[in-house]
Amino acid sequence: MTADPQQAKRPVSAMLAGPYGHPFHPILVTVPIGAWVASLVFDIGSHVVEDPEFLARGALWLIALGVLGALAAATVGFLDFLAIPAGTPAFRTGLLHLSLNLAVTVAFALDFVWRRAEGAHGAVPIGPLLLSAAALATLSVSGYLGGKLAYRYGVRVADEATQATGFHR
């Protein structure tokens, strides 16, 4: 028995998750991704500048911003996930995407706590730096899965007939 793919295209709540064919989740994920990538750049930079404290402190707050942004993205992403029919490859991919993103968010939250406990008195210690790098590598895998959900399975993407209207003259 084949599940109805149109079910995964329609939002559970258009007001919360975004209207048909224009979900909020993809735009919201740019906040944590950008903040966490910038925090790793700051981490690395803290090892090459003469006075690294400002970069260590900036990385700390970028991590916090990323965690808050991830919570917002996860809220609407979960609503998108609820629209996917259970037991399908799209559902399994979505569940893995959700799980990896949850692990990444927890890792960065722990990273924030670790850095706060250590204090920003110099270059970022190697432990928190490696945790950030590992979390970003995991986020890359999850991002690939998110792309698979949208571009291969069409989750929350308008159907082909609707898409075709953009190519009429």
Main attributes?
169 residues, mainly alpha
What can be said about this structure in brief?
This protein is an all-alpha fold.
What structural class do helix, strand and pairing data support? Answer: mainly alpha
Q: How big a fraction of the residues is strand?
A: under 5%
Distance between the termini: 39 Å
In terms of per-residue confidence, which ranges show pLDDT below 50 for 5 or more consecutive residues?
none
Q: Count of DSSP helices?
A: 7
What shape does the CA trace take? elongated
In helices, the fraction of residues equals 55-70%
- Average the pLDDT over all residues and give the rounded result: 90
**CA radius of gyration:** 19 Å
Largest sheet: none
User: Can you write the helix and strand succession as a string?
Assistant: HHHHHHH
According to DSSP, the number of beta strands is 0
